Amino acid sequence: MALAALSFALPLGGCTSEAVSPDLPPHLIEKPDANPVRPIDGFETAELSDFSLPLSDDKYRARVDELYQTVVDLGRKPILRDDDPVKPIYDAAVAVLDKYILNAWHAEVDGEYRKVHSIHDWLVYYVDYDFELYDRYHGGEAVDDNPAFDIDGVFLNKRAVCNGLSRAASFLCAVEGVRSMRVTGTYLGAPHAWNKVNIGGEWYNMDVTADAANYTVDKGASYKKQLTHGYFLLSDKTYRRFSPNGDPSSAHVFTSTVKSEKDFDYYTGMVSVGDRDFGMTVTSKARLLEIFDAVDDEGGRVGKLELKLRFPEKDENSVNDGDIYAREIKDAYRRLGSSDFSSSSLPYVRYPNGVYLFLMYF
């Protein structure tokens, strides 16, 4: 039962939903190709089994699984009748790729990375985690047949749990010709599922569920979400070592015959605060304070900062074992003129390898 999601409660005072920045992923395509081409269009085709309408719930779920197996496990392009009940699922998945992945990426050296990056960010940003289903499951209700566990929950409802999200990631990668696989295990002590993707001949872990930083507002009455990349393209060692709650039992636990040996450092780019640009990897407390001063100059209307702290005086071997930057971060938040956060509420989320998501709403 794969349901785990990263969530945490933060007191936001009088913060309203209007104060949350839209935070649209900056790398996604604004103008899609006029004539999009998907790699799956060149694959061998396969027809799904015969069917007659209407389908029972069980037969529908079996057909969704057949679509998944055809595309992901067999690597074939499905031939679907117009009245096939799973055709809208396939069409919706392809429509996502048509909008956010360019034809040119198929042949570019970093095309695999661009594809995976877009797939990751679309799933994190546009698909909501089904917390209600999570609560029903923990209440003992049988919910295994819910679409949130599968690709139709993602592509038709934009609402899923980690099992559906990880299946959708594999489905999108398969359509794009990117090698991937699902990984199952536990995270935060609960059953969980995520993915491994192959980029440039190397396998990396990618957890789209954990990269949706869900936090509560209005005393837990509702959830907000921020897109992050803390669990984007990491090694097995990093996944197993990092415990977000400081408790080793909260780390990723899994077995996989395919090993991921390397971390891909996403945090080599830039982040903008107003009209100023800063490196996403911060190498000194002075630079961190400078970034927070820029946030204060903007009146705090930044929403979030996603940074990697890598101070030379810190022991990099300890960066995943505890909050080694807690004091420096607390001093940085003191630079803000006012905030909806108190210093004790930890207005940030720790991720592996010194990555932090800073939350700032005024």
Describe the secondary structure blueprint for this structure:
Layout (H helix, E strand, L loop, with lengths): L6 E3 L35 E3 L9 H17 L3 E3 L7 H14 L10 H16 L1 E2 L1 H8 L12 H5 L3 E2 L1 H14 L4 E8 L2 E10 L2 E5 L5 E6 L4 E6 L4 E3 L1 H6 L11 E2 L15 E4 L2 E4 L1 E2 L2 H13 L5 E7 L16 H8 L14 E4 L3 E6 L2
Parallel strand pairs: 1-9, 2-3, 4-5, 15-16
Antiparallel strand pairs: 6-7, 6-12, 7-8, 8-11, 9-10, 13-14, 16-18, 17-18
Shape label: globular
Mean pLDDT: 87
Percent in helix? 25-40%
- SS-based structural class? alpha/beta
Distance between the termini: 39 Å
DSSP strand content: 15-25%
- Counting DSSP E segments of at least 2 residues, the number of strands comes to 18
**Global Rg:** 21 Å
Secondary-structure element order, as H and E?
Answer: EEHEHHEHHEHEEEEEEHEEEEHEHEE
Give the helix tally: 9
What composes the largest sheet? Answer: 5 strands, antiparallel
Low-confidence segments, given as residue ranges, are 1-23
Looking at this protein, list some descriptive labels:
single chain, 362 residues, alpha/beta, 2 domains, four-stranded mixed beta sheet, 28% helix, disordered N terminus
Account of the protein in words:
- The protein is of the alpha/beta class.
- It folds into 2 domains: 1-265, no CATH class; 270-360.
- 28% of the residues lie in helices and 22% in strands.
- The chain has 9 helices and 18 strands.
- The strands form 6 sheets. Strands 11-8-7-6-12 form a 5-stranded antiparallel beta sheet. A 4-stranded mixed beta sheet has the order 15-16-18-17.
- Strand 9 and strand 10 (222-227) form a beta hairpin.
- Helix 3 runs antiparallel to helix 6 (162-175) and helix 8 packs parallel to helix 9.
- The longest helix has 17 residues, at 57-73.
- The chain is globular and about 65 Å long.
- It starts with 6 loop residues before the first strand and ends with a strand.
